[in-house]
Design brief:
Number of domains: 2
Largest sheet: none
CATH topology of the largest domain: Lysozyme
Helix content: 55-70%
CATH architecture of the largest domain: Orthogonal Bundle
Low-confidence stretches: 8-14
Distance between the termini: 44 Å
Shape: globular
Number of helices: 9
Order of helices and strands: HHHHHHHHH
């Protein structure tokens, strides 16, 4: 009986943790036109839903945003008051990260599927994407994923895309 109680408590905690930012995610999705399932999948992979997460290279919060990217977002949004410490706020972090994802998705709009390119850029940076983005991989996303020679980035792209498919059922009414 104790084991069953423990499993129920864990299930409840896990559900609460995974859904507590859905409102923030939907607001950012609507504002920047990005699929909320993608945003949630990135949050899952980057921070496992911890707004206090801190990365080794200075990434902050749910979507593990760097100060430079957040500064670009703040400038584009005319948020002259913005300070990097505000990235610990889930709403601010999710807006900045979603804006950045939106920008990356548009950057690779000429491809058959911009998502793997944008995710690779989000994870490993534009210079690496340009290195992997040669020949057929320039427009063919399957070829592009095969060209990614950083196992961690390839795994990142694949896992976020799988998790996005899993979360799609959580946001059935979005656009």
């Amino acid at each position: 009986m104790l084991l069953l109680d423990g499993l129920l408590v864990y299930w409840w905690w896990h559900q609460e943790r995974e859904h507590r930012f859905d409102g923030v995610i939907l607001a950012a999705a609507d504002r920047y036109g990005v699929d909320p399932a993608l945003i949630k999948a990135v949050v899952w992979r980057e921070s496992r839903f911890s707004p206090k997460a801190r990365g080794k290279a200075g990434e902050i919060g749910l979507m593990q945003i760097r100060s430079l990217a957040a500064g670009e977002w703040a400038q584009a949004e005319n948020l002259w008051w913005f300070r990097a410490g505000e990235l610990y706020d889930p709403a601010v972090n999710t807006r900045a990260g979603t804006w950045y994802l939106s920008r990356l998705l548009k950057r690779y709009a000429q491809t058959d599927d911009p998502l793997p390119y944008a995710l690779a850029d989000y994870n490993a940076g534009r210079s690496n994407v340009l290195r992997w983005n040669r020949g057929a991989a320039k427009t063919n996303s399957a070829a592009f994923v095969k060209q990614i020679d950083f196992p961690g980035t390839r795994d990142y792209v694949i896992s976020v895309m799988r998790r996005m498919a899993y979360y799609r059922s959580r946001f059935p009414d979005w656009k």
